[in-house]
Amino acid sequence: MPGLVHVIDDDASFRAAVERRLKLAGYDVETYSSAQQLLDRLPDAETPGCILLDVQMPGLSGLELQSRLIERGSTLPVVFVPDMPIRRRRCAPSRQALRISWPSRHRQNN
User: How many domains does the chain have?
Assistant: First the structure.
């Protein structure tokens, strides 16, 4: 049984692309343009799922959101999607956090 994936990213085109791919794979998806939006509509802990989270966003960062979720007792696993590599030690100590490498969403001019 697929769960609910909460996608938080300030890039609308990235959110839409990830949402399409996850829905094609059979997942239910909720998207948010900011970390604060997710906090305002805190997910139900009873619904199985995870949080796919951009690390660097305007306002509340992904790392700050993870800390606030932990403070509120959330047990949803967090998957970090960085624009650039991040160091594992910057993530809050939690067995529910996973950092993945993702192809760059921004082309670099060489």
Answer: 1
